[in-house]
Amino acid sequence: MWETFFGLKKTPFSDRPDGKLLFASAAWQQVNERLEFLAQHHGVGLLTGEVGAGKSTAARVFTATLNPNLYKILYIHFSSGTALDLLRQIALTLDLEPAHYRGDLVRQIAEAVVRLNQSKKQHPLLIVDEAHLLPHAALEQLPLLLNFDMDSARYLSLLLIGQPLLRRTLTLQLHEALRQRVAVHYHLEGLTREELDAYLAQQLKAAGVTAALFTDTARQTIYQATKGIPRKVNKLAVAALRLAAQRQAESVDEAVALEATKEVLL
What does the alpha-carbon distance between residue 98 and residue 94 come to, in Å, rounded to a whole number? Predict the structure, then answer.
């Protein structure tokens, strides 16, 4: 196996990284600051980025740091469906038996959210991943879940995660009520060229190797092919190491990186 060939103690470049080894890019620091603000001040947050930029990872790692006695994480990975389907998913994450009708569902969810705040002293954070797939009718339901008893209390926080289409969708007039509630927003870009070098070195070191297994020209090729998007970087780095091992090469050079690019980045 290529891991053995390069003397690696474990496989690097995982798409589900250890939170303790998360690469602290400048963009991640920006995301973290905004998520901290959202957790402390409540309201609505918006996190967008290209496929593979690390949006879900950032949210997952951050929420793992929250005190479970103070916060209840309601995570929904929305793929498709109606507004009613979304409300039913939210109800299920609250351990409720979903009501049959939309109005009853909204009241049911609102009552559960208030109970969490007042009885258990837990603040719910609803995370809707792949939110760019939400139909307009489903997005229109979300402001209803943020209104409570005509007072100023914020019983529910909401984090929408999605691809750039989500930002464009929220500019539509019918989503004005939701857009006005967005307190924090960040668009997650890929790693910079300098960060890419540091990321490759960090991943290899965590796997037990300090030698530079990627030449300067190989790293440049990887950056140009991936634009620093972590998932693409991981995929390409693994393919390049595998090809280099097959050739009994001590490192990944530009030729190997280009060949790997043709193989894995369609």
Answer: 10
Q: How far apart are CA 32 and CA 61, in angstroms?
A: 9
The pLDDT score that the predictor gives to residue 1 is 85
Q: How far apart are CA 241 and CA 89, in angstroms?
A: 41
Longest pairwise C-alpha distance within the chain: 69
Reported as a single tens digit per residue, the pLDDT across 188-217 is: 999 999 999 999 999 999 999 999 999 999
- DSSP letter for each residue of 114-152: HHHHHTS--EEEEEEETGGG--HHHHHHHHHHT--TTSS
Per-residue CA distances from 235 to 94, 109, 175, 255 (Å): 36, 40, 37, 17
Sheet harboring 182-188: ordered strands across? Answer: 71-77, 123-129, 157-162, 44-49, 182-188
Residue type at 15 in one-letter notation: D
Whether the CB-CB separation of 34 and 184 falls below 8 Å is answered with: yes
Q: Select from 3.90.1720.10, 3.30.300.30, 1.10.8.60, 1.10.10.10 the CATH code of 2-9+191-264.
A: 1.10.8.60
